[in-house]
Amino acid sequence: MVVWTDFERSTIQDIFSKMDYEVVGPAALTRCLIVYPWTQRYFGNFGNLYNAAAIMGNPMVAKHGTTILHGLDRGVKNMDDLKATYAELSVLHSEKLHVDPDNFKLLSDCLTIVVAAKLGKAFTGEVQAAFQKFLAVVGPAALTRCLIVYPWTQRYFGNFGNLYNAAAIMGNPMVAKHGTTILHGLDRGVKNMDDLKTTYAELSVLHSEKLHVDPDNFKLLSDCLTIVVAAQLGKAFTAEVQAAFQKFLAVVVSSLGRQYH
């Protein structure tokens, strides 16, 4: 059984209490179908899903998105026994619908981005950690968020001093400085989008052969950056914008991980 702290429990309940399920649910599912188009294969009876406009205007997508949020609401009300709460749905999705379980993670990522865009600055690293912990069972800001949400990534920053808790990480000047450095590094990629592998070849060697960084951490940081950008842009961070942004980050992550293969 998952153990919830008082902070996590109250945070999750607070987030869901502020949600308009008929807005957030459709927005999350719409985003998932646009950003990850291969997930559309499970919705063959939904009619027109040919492009972003069609998906956003599809009433069956909206209805099912709302249903998903109401399903999550059941989990919020039964946080101490989520496995039993979702046992029947688990059987349905695995044995009848044959849904790839990775798709649940994709949808939860999209829901996280929608919530981040709604809550803005209130969606702190600590709040994200609690929210994503719940969903997992059912620049400076980006690096800070990554170190808080994924604490095992702190191992690569042993010379950064105090990283003992969220407050320490948020107030750590070395974290802020390195987060800024990372963004300037991404800026190099933006200016050389047609040759990202060459642009990041030296950094790839550095991270793999000298720093021995787990390449999965590049993806974790890119996820946190996406959420920070979503919180900054709000409604302007549409599903189509997210798709383009994450496509760029995915190529950067691949380029940085090139030396590992």
TrEMBL record:
InterPro entries for the chain: Globin (IPR000971), Globin-like_sf (IPR009050), Globin/Proto (IPR012292), Hemoglobin_b (IPR002337), Hemoglobin_oxygen_transport (IPR050056)
Keyword flag Ribosomal protein: no
Any one annotated GO CC term: hemoglobin complex
UniProt entry keywords in alphabetical sequence: Heme, Iron, Metal-binding, Oxygen transport, Transport
Sequence ranges assigned to domain Globin in this UniProt record: 3-261
GO MF: haptoglobin binding; heme binding; metal ion binding; organic acid binding; oxygen binding; oxygen carrier activity; peroxidase activity
Protein's name in the database: Globin domain-containing protein
One Gene Ontology biological process: hydrogen peroxide catabolic process
Protein's UniProt keywords contain Nucleotide-binding: no
Family per record: Belongs to the globin family.
Organism domain of life: Eukaryota
